[in-house]
């Protein structure tokens, strides 16, 4: 039986030449330590270095329970008739 991987929702910050970029993402619990620097994988499959974990959420979910917001958004667009824009 495979080991269950847990995730935490984190606020991540990456410096840019003009300021900073902030995202909220579910990352493996193993890497969800405040001030830890992590890499994120983008939708295109490429990794981006230099994301600092600024805040760690208290909720801890197994991988199969982490919401897929991309799919939820597409489902909403289909349900509202806006799927052509998705």
Sketch the topology as an H/E string, one letter per element. EEEEH
Structural class: mainly beta
Poorly predicted parts: none
Largest beta-sheet characterization: 4 strands, antiparallel
For the largest sheet, list the strands in their spatial order: 2-1-4-3
Computed CA radius of gyration, to the nearest angstrom: 15 Å
Give the mean pLDDT.
87
Number of beta strands: 4
Number of helices: 1
Assembly annotation: single chain
Terminal Cα separation, in Å?
Answer: 38 Å
Q: How many individual domains?
A: 1
In short:
Helices cover 14% and strands 49% of the residues. The protein is built from 1 helix and 4 strands, in the order E-E-E-E-H. A hairpin with a 2-residue loop joins strand 1 and strand 2.
Structure description:
This protein has 86 residues and is mainly beta. It has one domain (6-85). It contains one helix and four strands. A four-stranded antiparallel beta sheet has the order 2-1-4-3, with no helix packed on it. The mean pLDDT is 87.
Properties at a glance:
about 90 residues; mainly beta; 4-stranded antiparallel sheet
Question: What secondary-structure arrangement, pairings included, does this model have?
Answer:
Blueprint: E1 6-16, E2 19-28, E3 37-41, E4 47-62, H1 69-80
Antiparallel strand pairs: 1-2, 1-4, 3-4
